[in-house]
């Protein structure tokens, strides 16, 4: 899915590289940017972080497996079937072409064919699988922690996974209802979102973003947990301000349900409504800023090892801050009338989701890779991958801020030379292809390391601090711990290592 979403992105950037390009016609361009957004958010970022949760969370809490292994298996195959249903529209009647937000009425009477139907059914089924996963991991974390591990002694990644699952449980039923209502509109002639028969098109936007903005934090909060683990490990220090970090994650999860209207300030809700949601949106910067400073203070006077996972964590902080600062700009309702629906918003969104989620996916993959397969990825190739991707990312998306300020609308499939956007678009496209080349370097690293890396026998290749590193490097096939450990403190494994006591 990551490969297809990436290819879609390269097709978009090829079409926009120069004025008047005819690489894609308007219809195919709409299909490509729709599938790119949907795949990257729903079918790449979310399953990636949930996959890491499957591997790491039971190990971190000292459990032999998740609470409901059958439900875990069922949720995966349900999600997989939803993803395949979405993708099969590519060969049966054309892909959906109404954007990943699938706004009505464009997605209803103005979108004949099967593409939107496959979007609705595929996302619906995948969402049900995700909901089952959320329930499973909530029970696992709340009921299966090892002896002595209270909530405030859990690793940060486990905390963020728990809060993520809580968001899933409350947010995904809203998406399920919204998709069902639009399915009835398209297949059975109801009129929930059609103006012609008394429906309310903006109700879809409200329902979608009541789910959609918490969805952003479903893929961002686990990233915060991943970076917390990595920064603490490679700074050789206890995570600074652990209680404040936990509180910040909880506050963000609550605020994520109170900001959805900022996605359509231009709808005309009125000054009072826009002001309320503008304030709640800006408030998210407070707990987010707390985490940024906690990570910085964790590194302060630490013995930092510049391994590949740590490099991704260090790159995350400034790039994510850029996305956060521009997010505060977009939170101002009056200013949003200028920025909205331009490439300024596109750039902001990618600085948040790529710098946050994708960087964390790469960092977490490299960090826990020896735990999964029993050997480390090559560090030298990994650093090449890091530098090419991060440079390409900034070359691609930073110019888009200026394209947005210069008035370039998002979703357009072409432009003319007189618009003056050609140079920045070409630079942006070059950056996108650098990111694509970096992905090939990652694939090469996986193959090279499989052939040449030495077997990791210590179980703790990074000299880490959390419980998953107390067992063998390649997770046993049946269960994680032959004897369940005891846990006495947040960094109990580290303290037992340094005092040479048994875990």
From TrEMBL:
Catalysed reactions, as listed in the record: 2 a quinol + O2 = 2 a quinone + 2 H2O
Residue intervals of the Cytochrome oxidase subunit I profile domain: 1-488
Cofactor or coenzyme needed: ferriheme a; Cu cation
Topology of this chain in the membrane: Multi-pass membrane protein
Any Gene Ontology biological process: aerobic respiration
Family: Belongs to the heme-copper respiratory oxidase family.
GO molecular function terms noted in the UniProt entry: cytochrome-c oxidase activity; heme binding; metal ion binding
TM region positions: 39-62, 74-98, 118-142, 162-184, 204-227, 239-263, 275-297, 309-334, 349-369, 381-403, 423-447
GO cellular component: a single term: plasma membrane
Keywords, alphabetical: Cell membrane, Copper, Electron transport, Heme, Hydrogen ion transport, Ion transport, Iron, Membrane, Metal-binding, Respiratory chain, Transmembrane, Transmembrane helix, Transport
Cited Pfam families: COX1
Protein name in UniProt: Quinol oxidase polypeptide I
Residues spanning the signal sequence: none
Pathway(s) this gene product operates in, as recorded in its UniProt entry: Energy metabolism; oxidative phosphorylation
Compartment list: Cell membrane
């Amino acid at each position: 899915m990551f490969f297809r979403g990436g290819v879609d992105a390269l097709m978009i950037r090829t079409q926009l590289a120069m004025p008047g390009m005819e690489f894609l016609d308007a219809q195919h361009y709409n299909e490509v940017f729709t599938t790119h957004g949907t795949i990257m958010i729903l079918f790449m970022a979310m399953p990636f972080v949930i996959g890491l949760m499957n591997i790491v969370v039971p190990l971190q809490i000292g459990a032999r497996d998740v609470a409901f292994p059958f439900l875990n298996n069922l949720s995966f195959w349900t999600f997989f079937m939803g993803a395949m249903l979405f993708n099969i529209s590519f060969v049966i009647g054309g892909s959906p072409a109404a954007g990943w937000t699938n706004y009505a009425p464009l997605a209803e009477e103005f979108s004949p064919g099967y593409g939107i139907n496959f979007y609705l059914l595929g996302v619906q089924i995948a969402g049900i699988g995700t909901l089952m996963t959320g329930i499973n991991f909530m029970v696992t974390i709340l009921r299966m922690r090892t002896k002595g591990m209270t909530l405030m002694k859990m690793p940060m990644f486990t905390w963020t996974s728990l809060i993520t699952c809580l968001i899933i449980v409350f947010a995904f039923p809203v998406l399920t209802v919204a998709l069902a209502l639009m399915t009835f509109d398209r297949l059975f002639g109801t009129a929930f979102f059609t103006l012609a028969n008394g429906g309310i098109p903006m109700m879809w936007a409200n329902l979608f973003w009541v789910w959609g903005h918490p969805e952003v934090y479903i893929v961002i909060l686990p990233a915060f947990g991943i970076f917390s683990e990595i920064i603490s490990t490679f700074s050789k220090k206890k995570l600074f301000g652990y209680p404040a970090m936990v509180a910040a994650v909880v506050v963000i999860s609550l605020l994520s349900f109170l900001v959805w209207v900022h996605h359509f300030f231009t709808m005309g809700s009125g000054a009072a409504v826009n002001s309320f949601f503008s304030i709640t949106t800006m408030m998210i910067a407070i707990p987010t800023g707390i985490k940024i400073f906690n990570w910085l203070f964790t590194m302060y006077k630490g013995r930092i090892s510049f391994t590949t996972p740590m490099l991704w964590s260090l790159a995350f902080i400034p790039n994510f801050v850029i996305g956060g600062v521009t997010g505060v700009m977009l939170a101002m309702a009056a200013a949003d009338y200028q920025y909205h629906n331009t490439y300024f918003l596109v750039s902001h969104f990618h600085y948040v989701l790529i710098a946050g989620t994708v960087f964390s996916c790469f960092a977490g993959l490299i960090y826990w890779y020896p735990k999964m397969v029993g050997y480390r990825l090559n560090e030298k190739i990994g650093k090449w991958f890091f530098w090419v991707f991060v440079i390409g990312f900034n070359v691609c998306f930073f110019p888009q801020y200026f394209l947005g300020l210069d008035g370039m609308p998002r979703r357009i499939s072409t432009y003319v030379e007189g618009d003056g956007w050609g140079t920045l678009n070409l630079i942006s496209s070059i950056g996108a292809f650098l990111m694509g080349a970096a992905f090939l370097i990652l694939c090469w690293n996986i193959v090279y390391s499989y052939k040449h890396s030495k077997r990791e026998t210590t179980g703790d290749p990074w000299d880490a601090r959390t419980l998953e590193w107390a067992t063998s490097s390649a997770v046993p096939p049946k269960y994680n711990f032959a004897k369940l450990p005891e846990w006495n403190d947040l960094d109990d494994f580290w303290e037992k290592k340094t005092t040479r006591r048994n875990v």
